[in-house]
Design goal:
The protein has 114 residues and is mostly beta strands. Helices cover 0% and strands 57% of the residues. It has strands at 3-7, 10-13, 18-25, 33-39, 46-52, 57-59, 67-72, 77-82, 91-99, 101-104, 108-113.
Length: 114
Amino acid sequence: QVQLVESGGGLVQAGGSLRLSCAVLGSVLRLNTMGWYRQAPGKQRELVADITISGNTNYADSVKGRFTISRNNAKNTVYLQMNSLKPEDTAIYYCQGIHAFTYWGQGTQVTVSS
């Protein structure tokens, strides 16, 4: 059974950086598209960034130039490097993977203090 396990969240001051990781466990399946979504209190879940197995990327306008998504297909892991963090980046960040089905991780909290 495919499981997505996130790590790397935490508390950081505005302007700081964090790196999120999401590992695919329980399968050697290489997911076609992997991405990061986030959900702030009282708001809908939104796409932050995603990346295809061939490396094509897509970013939300609000994070362009600050966040970088990457993946290591050999390790079956996707990363999100977050720089110049802002308080409005505070949210639970979820990893998503797609390959016929859609898989979700349980989420990791990112809190940016002003």
